[in-house]
Give the backbone structure.
Amino acid sequence: LRRRARRDKLVSARLSLLLTACCPFPFISPCEQSIGRLSFVMLYAIRFLNMFLPLLYLGLMALNVAWFVYQDQRARQYKKWLIPTTLILHFVELVLRGLYNGYFPIATVFEAASVLAFCLMLVYYMVEHLQKVQTTGPFFMIIVFLLQLFSSAFVEFSGDISPLLSSGMFIMHTSAAMLSYATIFAASLYA
């Protein structure tokens, strides 16, 4: 049993060292290994989605440009299912981040940028789906991609926050405010 425990500890240390050396930022740190298994899985999912979301938005931007410039029907079909998928994944990332940290994820400018990107994407999806206006996609996607890239590049996963951020009324207020900012931006884009 001792040999097996020592071997498992050695394998875990080597895996941690390998992931730290291969990635631009470490996925597994010694303090994160001490947290519970569910928290570790949540943190890993948050970090994965945080890296994957800018790529999804970049792909959506390319599809929207292809549809806008060339009227490519394949791009239209791909973006028809990729937009809701991206919205769902972004919502899951925001919910996981909120559950992991214990507060609504707008404590920093970078978290707020991610929430604003989600709200802009939601407004765009509703306009495209309800009004059948598909020509403004590239303009929305550039802003959403840059906001999410900014957020993903600089977001921190820990820090001291105000207890106000865990209040239910504050969460409702800021959610409505972010959605209204996104709607005002969309209205100015269509004007």
